[in-house]
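Figure 2 data, in text form.
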Amino acid sequence: MEGSGRKIIKKENPMKKKALLGLALAAALAMTACGGTKKTETTAAATTEKASEKAGEKASEKTGEATSEVAKENAEKTEVQVFVAASLKNVMEDLGQQYEKEHPEVKLVFNADSSGKLLSQIQEGYDCDIFFSAAQKQMNTLEEEGNLVEGTRKNVVNNQLCVITLKDSGTKVSGLETLKDAKSIALADGTVPVGKYTRQALVALKILPETEDVSKISTKEVSEALGGVEISEQSNVSKVLAAVVEGSSEVGTTYYSDTYGYEDKIQILEKVPYDLTGNVIYPIAQIKNEEASQEEQDAAKDFLAFVTSDNAKTTFQKYYFDTNVES
């Protein structure tokens, strides 16, 4: 007892000691096991990461090889630069696909814009093998300057000037003679063939005064002659069409061929008779291109022959062009 001053010494229980040693051993084994699992997981993760990297590298290599093959294929093709009036864009892309299917070694590159702008680009030295104009004036200029390959110029199709509006627009305009009743008009400038033909028709109707060169009649002069109506001047016929389709202009003057594909949106108010505009003939010719290889020149000549063949007439007619013209 405590009060007697006797020191009591406790003896250790041998069974308890064994139990403690067993627990310590178990804990040590558990720690070793945990460490082993973590190491195994790390190794597995590293292996998976390496496998993913290798798979990615192989995929990149395959993509690179495919891209290189396409680039190589395009590099081996003979390119032909074809300048076409904006109103020819759809039909020429159609004909181009037909030609490339028959001639996979040739790649046709189209540049579509107003004939006046394309003329300027050719004069400035742009790479061009074939020019397909919406009017004779631009082709005449190139021929006078000696830029055409002799014997390649041909008339291909005829078109017709139209006055158009959106369906259900409620416009009071019925055609050129009532353009003054429009709230707004989309009109190409005088250097653009469709703008020139519109001015020519207005002169024939005595709405505009006679002049030696109708293409020089400004848009402001046209507006004044129509009583000050708002006119949105456009740089090519495709932009005139877009202005009407988008509703930014109530009416506009385009070609009949431009209405292809818009039959559900566009109403033709008038197909302007040829006695007001004259024939709207589209000529084509091969351009002298000093930068072109012999293969490119030969391909250009062959494509031109394809476009002017009887087989191509069906495609032109599909897009509302008149193919009954003298070449």
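Caption note: DSSP finds ten helices and ten strands in the chain.
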